[in-house]
Design a protein that fits this description.
The structure holds 2 protein chains of 2 kinds. By secondary structure, chain A is α+β, with helices and mostly antiparallel strands. Chain B has 13 helices and 22 strands. In chain B, helix 11 packs antiparallel against helix 12. The chains are: A alpha+beta, B alpha/beta. Chains A and B meet through helix 6, helix 7, helix 9, helix 10 and helix 11 of A and helix 2, helix 9 and helix 10 of B.
Chain lengths: 321, 510
């Protein structure tokens, strides 16, 4: 730990605020691709005990949109100087609070905070009900031309008003990003797309439809849909589609998921049917003469094929050079 | 490949960017590139603003290509009784990066119809001047018929079918050099063989001092006392971008984005965004006994031209496996069985010279496109579907799948194919279409009540604001429009240079 880090860790909130106001701009290219270890500052010890003292923040350039995105990684609280040890969820780093990093210029914020970049959680792929969407973190470099040590603070942006908080944090450059979570993709077209992107359970419904449409995993020797990695597909879809796409896809997924409820002999939504029944239902649907059903089915078929052929093994098996 | 092409990458522009140039061109597709090159050769200081980025590497799949190189991931749609997707490239080089490299000259009959609709176009867009420009452009782009060595089975089979039916057909003329028949033009080109704008006209312009700024979305044209003085927009990193134009602003952002820009700039008088014309397309899948390997061979290497008088042009289609798979018939277990023999399927398509006219409006800066086929267009779609079935059967297909409700899902003999035309649906919603080649949303003409730009390409209400893309076309063309678009843009550049007092001599050379 350097003397400067130690000095900042011990600084009062007043001193931290002055450091933010007098901080140096951060070049996005200098932090892109890196994970930073974060240390919460300025909070009462009891709050830190109840929440966390250390965490990770990441800065990742989405190749499909060019946007600088990121997320927090939860860490085991092994002490302020212990090596970072990510908490795991289903065997993968537990990530929360997605954000986009944008220039401070033009973003409403408390006076003196517009020195560098802003971490904007409102532009991240967070659930609509998550209050983190109101949070913004201005970010500055502590020293000129040194992107290894950054200082940030949180404020709340609500209805055009900005409310400062005493939540300061220090970021120390740690290592190159080695994991990109599926939720990382931020819609490229702003809020409308963010709110339109499918939620996790809706994606699951869509995947059940994809699986039923493709029907693979049998004698034909092709892998079942569930065996392939779908994360990158969903990431790109959420990031690249226009605002009207999400609601349209959602309506399609709901309509076809609940269509079996009106079908004699089934009377249950698609997700409640066994796999064979799901596939048989969708196969019958392929002959449906209703234009809307045909259009919905063909849209999902295209998406299913896109997702399925993202798997290199599928491509090799079916002939791509 | 094109690493030195971009002067400034908007992904790195994090604080306000200001710049100025003689000529500011919005869009780097065929129209923008043609204008940029011609103006740069004439000695103007040119700055090109492009929303997309330089193609970096070759995308491994169709989906990845759509994410990286297409607007809205290829999910842009026109709303109407039938929701029709339309594809537009969004990259340095525009749609030329992802098109099939098909080259046609403007047919004389189309030009004659233009002149009938606006007699003064005979002088503003003389056929001979267009033809001269087309010849120069084609020479620079190396346009030539598809070589038999790279055609591959799908193109050869289409030729066989057309010959058997006695329909006029030919290898497609394309702008490629050293094509290896990789079959993936719609993802770019894995070998860099396609001579798209980022490999030809834009480097030419850059060599003469033009600057390309990628990753910038232009939001508005800046106007001052009835003159265009610049544009404003936003970089991909979120910063404001403001570019002052000393002599002219040229909109070359496509027939969808250009009218949106005009409207967002307050230029709403006249039919701006009206009169959208296009080439909607139908496609049919066929199954052959022998492997076709539809994804190999020249992407689009052969065409049937004998029905152009009916407004139908048939082309072999090559695309990524995922898109081919989505055209394989069936669902569930049937689809899986069919998928296992994917290499035996081919898809051919027909582009229709539709009469429908749609609209483009702006909703918060995003285009909202409305388009409804006419009854005659639907009849044309039905006729084209029948022709495609006939061609497949004549080429020896075992089964053909027209994909129409009320028609048997698999056809095996010509008598059944005839039924497609006699009893196939006449409801637009029965057809799965996609749309390419968009025109006419800022028409050229002398009367501000019926046109948006004047006969000198300048906006009726804003001097020094030029529109150079297919928005100015009075109608669709019935053929692939890349070369005519570039030729018209070239004439626009000549007008601009002349108006700015520059020599036009330099614009004449390739």
């Amino acid at each position: 730990m350097t003397a400067l880090v130690d000095q900042i860790r011990k600084a009062s909130t007043h001193e931290l605020r002055e450091r933010i106001a007098g901080g140096h701009p951060v070049a996005p290219g200098a932090i892109e691709g890196w994970a930073y270890r974060g240390t919460a500052l300025g909070l009462p010890r009891v709050v830190e005990k109840l929440t966390w003292k250390t965490f990770q923040k990441t800065f990742w350039r989405d190749p499909s949109t060019g946007r600088l995105l990121g997320w927090n990684v939860r860490l085991h609280q092994d002490g302020p100087d212990a090596p970072s040890r990510p908490k795991l969820k289903r065997g993968l780093p537990h990530t929360v609070w997605h954000y986009e990093v944008v220039p401070a210029a033009g973003v409403p914020m408390p006076p003196g905070f517009d020195r560098g970049l802003v971490i904007d959680y409102g532009r991240g792929n967070n659930p609509p009900w998550d209050t983190i969407r109101f949070a913004r973190d201005p970010l500055v470099a502590v020293e000129r031309d040194n992107p290894d040590l950054l200082l940030g603070v949180s404020y709340v942006s609500l209805g055009g008003r900005c409310l400062e908080t005493p939540t300061y944090f220090l970021l120390e450059r740690e290592h190159r990003i080695d994991y990109v979570p599926p939720e990382a993709g931020v819609p490229g077209a702003g809020v409308a797309t963010q709110t339109g992107a499918l939620l996790a359970f809706e994606r699951r419904w869509a995947e059940l439809l994809f699986d039923a449409l493709l029907g693979t995993g049998g004698d034909e020797g092709l892998p079942p849909f569930e065996a392939i990695d779908r994360a990158a597909f969903w990431q790109r879809l959420a990031a690249g589609t226009p605002p009207y796409f999400g609601p349209g896809l959602r309506a399609t997924v709901y309509a076809l998921t609940f269509l079996p409820v009106t079908t004699p002999g089934l009377r249950r939504p698609l997700f409640a049917l066994p796999r064979d029944a799901r596939r048989a239902f969708v196969e019958r649907l392929g002959d449906d003469e209703r234009h809307t059903v045909r259009q919905m089915l063909s849209t999902l078929k295209i998406l299913a094929c896109f997702a399925y052929f993202e798997d290199p093994q599928v491509r090799v098996r079916l002939g791509t050079p | 490949m094109t690493a030195r092409l971009v002067h400034t990458d908007g992904r790195e522009v994090t604080s306000r960017l200001t710049a100025e140039a003689d000529v500011v061109v919005v869009g780097s597709g065929p129209a923008g590139a043609a204008v940029a090159r011609a103006c740069a050769l004439a000695g103007a200081d040119v700055l090109v603003l492009e929303e997309g980025h330089e193609a970096a590497g070759f995308p491994a799949s169709g989906f990845q290509a759509m994410a990286a190189l297409y607007r809205d991931l290829g999910t842009s749609v026109a709303f109407g009784p039938l929701v029709i997707p339309f594809l537009q490239g969004r990259a340095v080089g525009g749609t030329s990066v992802v098109n099939g490299a098909i080259c046609w000259n403007l047919p004389r009959d189309v030009h004659e119809a233009w002149v009938r609709s606006e007699p003064r176009l005979a002088d503003a867009l003389p056929f001979e001047a267009l033809a001269r420009a087309e010849a120069l452009i084609e020479a620079r782009l190396g346009v030539a018929p598809t070589a038999p060595s790279v055609a591959g089975p799908k193109n050869e089979l289409l030729a066989k079918g057309a010959a058997s039916l006695g329909l006029e057909h030919r290898p497609i003329r394309r702008n490629v050099a050293g094509c290896a028949g990789s079959g993936r033009c719609l993802q770019g080109c894995p070998n860099g063989a396609k001579l798209s704008m980022d490999r030809t006209f834009l480097p030419d312009a850059v060599a003469r001092g033009a600057r390309i700024v990628s990753g910038v979305t232009v939001r508005r044209v800046l106007l001052d006392r009835g003159r265009a003085v610049g544009v404003t927009g936003r970089s991909a990193a979120g910063a404001e971008v403001r570019v002052r134009a000393r002599r002219a602003v040229v909109l070359a952002a496509s027939a969808i984005q250009t009218p949106v820009l005009l409207r967002e700039s307050g230029l709403t008088r006249g039919p701006v965004g009206d009169g959208l014309m296009a080439h909607p397309g139908v496609s049919v899948t066929g199954l052959f006994d022998a492997p076709v390997n539809n994804h190999l061979g020249a992407t689009q290497g052969h065409e049937v031209t004998g029905l152009r008088h009916e407004g139908i042009k048939v082309e072999a289609l090559g695309f990524d496996l995922s898109i081919l798979a989505s055209r394989v018939p069936g669902a569930g277990a049937t689809f899986a069985r069919n998928l296992a023999r994917l290499s035996h399927y081919a898809v051919w398509g027909a582009a229709l010279r539709a009469q429908a006219r749609g609209t483009v409006r702006s909703l918060g800066g995003r285009p909202v496109v409305r388009y409804a086929l006419t009854a005659d267009d639907v009849r044309k779609a039905r006729r084209a579907t029948r022709v495609l079935v006939d061609l497949f059967l004549a080429a020896g297909a075992r089964e053909v799948y027209p994909g129409l409700p009320g028609v048997p899902s698999a056809l095996r003999d010509p008598a059944a194919a005839a039924a497609v035309e006699s009893s196939g649906p006449l409801d637009a919603r029965a057809y799965a279409m996609s749309m390419t080649h968009l025109f006419g949303t800022a028409r050229m003409g002398a009367d501000p009540r019926t046109s948006v730009v004047g006969l000198d390409f300048q906006h009726h209400d804003a001097r020094r604001l030029y529109v150079a893309d297919s928005s100015v076309f009075p109608s669709n063309t019935g053929v692939n429009p890349q070369i005519p678009i570039m030729a018209v843009a070239h004439l626009c550049a000549e007008q601009l240079v002349q108006a700015a007092g520059e020599s036009t001599q330099a614009t004449a050379g390739p």
